[in-house]
Amino acid sequence: MLQKNQDIFEILLSAVSEAVLVVDENQMIMETNASAKDIFGYERKELIGKHLNILIPKKYHSNHSSHFNSFVKKGEKKQMAFGRCIYGVRKDNTIFPMEAGLNPFSIYGKKFVMAIFVDISERKKQELEIKKLNAQLEKKIRQRTQKLKNTVDKLQLVNLELDSEIKRRIEAEQEIKTSLKKEQELNELKTKFLSLVSHEFKTPLSGILTSAMLLGKYKLEEQQEKRNKHVKTIIDKVYYLDNILNDFLSVEKLEKGKVTYNSNTFKLSKVVNEVVYNTNMLLKEGQKINYPENIDEFSLYHDEKIIELILSNVIFNAVKYSSENTVVDIEIMQNEKNTIFIVKDEGIGIPTKDQSNIFDRYFRAENVLSTQGTGIGLNIVKNHLEEIGGTITFKSEEHVGTTFTITIPNRSIV
Questions:
Q1: Domain 2-119 class?
Q2: Which residue, of 174, 270, 378, 380, has the greatest Cβ tally within 10 A?
Q3: Domain ranges of the chain
Q4: What is the pTM of this model?
Q5: How far is residue 313's CA from residue 406's CA, in Å, rounded to a whole number?
Q6: Distances (CA, A) of 265 to 173, 271, 277, 301
Q7: Which CATH architecture fits 262-414?
């Protein structure tokens, strides 16, 4: 029976695509599987009885031993987590990134640890490619922003001239349309990068593909409602992917302190119109956004895209976390020093115990865990506001709604 159990164990290990090692509490390798050779390059007999350090770069030996001993002492399972990277060393001395899951167990009073390793070299290569593409994209965006500013300046001069300058005004307006179109193309380019990013993007992309395929099957006039449903699914998920890519780009720049604010004077109504237009496409049945009154004369001197990012996150959340037949109110006030935005919804609200953490990166309140999201939007908003001298506060009651108040100085301080 013991031999039979051993055979079953070996069969199960060989079926696992990841590298599996069993080590004792002294970090001596007791067992491994065939996949370990694919990752580390060692035959099974070369690993059995060897210290685990044979698979760990020398510079990490001391830290690894202390972490391992602490883990064995606690005896808690440690799940493999995306993004939590350690390093291994192959037989040919090449060092590579990997992820590990640790599972402690005991047999006949002896402690063992089953470690599962995954080579993430290709993922890291893709991440570097994403950073490179992001840098190229940011450079193009800065160029487009400068072109937009130059065009707007030209329009301001044209508005002061007489009828003889009408032709110049039309040409300048055409330049704005062309520049905006190019900027939209750049935003669409962002979504193409999502294929390089794991986990968070797979489900939306799958939903888009499914809805697109089903659209082709509904050809009868009475099936229009079904077509509309799938079109809305596609719009929702594409807008979600665009927002989340913007969030990832902002996180990258904020973490490295590479945020560059390109400030210029712009009409606030332009940004509000853009944000409300995009959010209207995501409204549920019977939902409504009350547009702010008397803002045509309001202007700000800031980075226009950052202000749009801040408002998009807050207004999109108000719609996302509210049910059908609800209203989202937007109120904007401006005095000599500041502009104040108030966004009020009738949504699910934020549980009291979660309110102190709502601006923490990756934190999500317990009542939205089943709703898709990353937990970085409000963190990005707060960090950008702090950079430009603004603030954000909120009041919320669960099952009643939430009101966010954003205060931004009229002129940039950065």
A1: alpha beta
A2: 380
A3: 2-119, 262-414
A4: 0.45
A5: 12
A6: 17, 12, 22, 4
A7: 2-Layer Sandwich (3.30)
